[in-house]
Amino acid sequence: MKGKSSKFDEKAIIAQLGNENTREAAFSAIIRQYGEQLYWHIRQMVFSHDDSNDILQNTFLKAWSNIDKFRGEAQLSTWLYRIAINETLTFLSKNRNTISIDSPEGEIAFQLESDPYFDGDHSDALLQEAIARLPEKQRLVFTMKYFQELKYEEISQISGTSVGALKASYHIAVKKIEEFLAGKD
Fold first, then answer.
1. Tens digits of residue pLDDT in 42-81
2. Which of the chain's ends, N or C, has fewer CB atoms near its CB within 10 Å?
3. What is 49-86 written as a DSSP string?
């Protein structure tokens, strides 16, 4: 997972995190480097701008409060993605009653179309509706593979799931999306 700037030196940032005098500046650099890509990763799972922002803030709060526990065994991005996934899944579990995958047809599309941050066309709305109907784990794998173009090995590190299970989940997700879209013709 590459950051958006070649000036971001992960080893230097990790060293700065270990120093109380440079910790805040280093963490600010992490937010600048990974904030947008984490936001869009969360947004693919949650679909609401406000909820995605809240989850992103929770992700960075949790990362900040656990920064001393980061040992550098994984990349910063992998560690942050894992926190973001856990925060997103916690949010989805808590809000299962208000954000239902089995929502009546059109409710998800209405939520997307009424969201001022969604600028997609009808095809995009249908795809998002199909993705929203996936079980959480399949939705997670699909969004990481399809939208973020991560390799299965990277997703495995982030999610703690075997590559074989990820491939199976992705294949099933693609089939479900294809079936949903075929039914909309």
1. 888 887 889 999 999 999 999 999 998 887 778 898 899 9
2. C
3. HHHHHHHHHHHHHHHHHTGGG--SSS-HHHHHHHHHHH
